[in-house]
Design a protein that fits this description.
Elements lengths: L2 H14 L6 E8 L3 E8 L2 E8 L4 E6 L9 E6 L10 E6 L5 E6 L4 E6 L1
Antiparallel strand pairs: 1-2, 2-3, 3-8, 4-7, 5-6, 5-8
């Protein structure tokens, strides 16, 4: 699957997102610094983060993911080429209790648990 196809899939997935969620969890953050939340509809989790200020590494507990989630489809800031709005990659989370990610300066990410 090409990056454009994946980005199209993410756009389509986010457009299908409804205004009501079955569950919302605050995962990490501090007012004025960064925020990471997860929202669930059915068995689909969407994790979103926004960072204010310097780049930072965060570790997220994955204990809220009940079921057989194996990967995250991730769209994050492209730190290598700031002209790109999004770098898309898949991250394996199978058998992991936590997930660590480096958030770009004034950046963020969206991840969809699969």
């Amino acid at each position: 699957m090409t990056n454009q196809e994946i980005l199209s899939h993410i756009d389509h997935t986010l457009l299908k997102a409804v205004a009501t969620w079955d569950e919302i969890k605050f995962l990490d953050g501090y007012p004025g610094d960064f925020t990471i939340i997860a929202r669930r509809k059915g068995d689909k989790w969407v994790i979103g983060a926004i960072n204010a200020g310097k780049a930072r590494k965060v570790t997220i507990a994955l204990d809220f993911l009940k079921g057989n989630y194996q990967s995250l489809l991730l769209c994050e800031d492209d730190t290598a080429d700031p002209r790109n709005q999004c770098v898309i990659r898949t991250v394996s989370i199978e058998d992991k209790k936590t997930w660590t990610i480096e958030m770009a300066e004034n950046g963020g990410f969206v991840a969809i648990a699969k």
